[in-house]
DNA sequence: ATCATCACG
DNA sequence: ACGTACGTGATGATA
């Protein structure tokens, strides 16, 4: 079940046809293919999906993380500061930026991370940071107004793009996908696939979106133009991302470069912003000689282990992340909002629990 | 070492 | 007409 090559043999025997092929000519057997088969009533797909999910969680997390724990059951990651083209950090050995959370069973793995005695875990998460960065960069009046008034951004996008006032959950879901697509350097084909609509329909959505948000379209066009002229694109803080192949004659290479030219300044500005916040928070922790520790970063989220007697400090962290972070750049008017997502407590185990097994 | 897959933002 | 969403790292299978 872990071998696409062997699954291809099985599928052929069962006369299950998969049109998408890997480079080597085997069937693609990834989640989207297997879910499609599942929807066609092919039961074996369900079982493979289930097995793949547990297999992934076991090999990458349950089993591997236990091996990374030190004598005190603490796990230490490496945060790499120069491994990405946009300015993000990455985390390795082990990667602590991709601990499961999306699935129910995945949440149980995350729940295994607990605070030390006398501490609580606090997670502070920038809400919609990349859309706010985009808004800052292009000063789109409608987007600005929405963020200023704390309006549900996906709902307001839905109202504008679909030209109606009453928005149902499905409209909102689609608008959310469109908003994400915008940040990634949208294409009609990619959007159509995500939304399960025709290319033609997706194309209309995009045209309508840019009609309503002309500043966003202009910002993206100028990002691509600047990249073509200079070979790099600068984000709000002046960080340069070098964009190779931006003038390539190969359509595929060039298109990819253009999407990167659009996405890199947005993703990169958000990365630089949170790093500035991290430095300011670290300075404050040292100045006040706190026991509280800043223990992890996940792109738009900071995780703290806060001492029980220092919980007031959370207010200061919020103030730094929302307000002070931009004080040095006076022409920016970012309206940052935080979500304090989770407060997790837990008794630290005095003895190692050993390896957790699902089977 | 590379590929396909899948975990996260 | 081309064939696509942006950024990562870890794993098991395979070459």
In short:
The protein is α+β, with helices and mostly antiparallel strands. The protein has 13 helices and 8 strands.
Can you tell me about this structure?
Helices cover 50% and strands 11% of the residues. The protein has 359 residues and is of the alpha+beta class. The strands form three sheets. A four-stranded antiparallel beta sheet has the order 6-7-3-8, covered by helices on one side. A hairpin with a 5-residue loop joins β4 (232-234) and β5. The longest helix is centred in the last third of the chain and has 37 residues, at 251-287. The radius of gyration is 23 Å and the shape is globular. Residues 347-359 have low confidence and may be disordered. The protein binds a DNA duplex (9 and 15 nucleotides) through α1, α3, β2, α8 and α9.
The ordered H/E elements are: HHHEEHEHHHHHHHEEHEEHE
Q: Look at the structure and give the mean pLDDT.
A: 90
Give me the side-by-side strand order of the main sheet: 6-7-3-8
Largest sheet: 4 strands, antiparallel
The counted number of beta strands is 8
Structural class: alpha+beta
Distance between the termini: 16 Å
The low-confidence runs, each spanning 5 or more residues with pLDDT under 50, are 347-359
Overall body shape: globular
Strand proportion: 5-15%
How many alpha or pi helices? Answer: 13
What's the gyration radius in Å? 23 Å
**Estimated helix fraction:** 40-55%
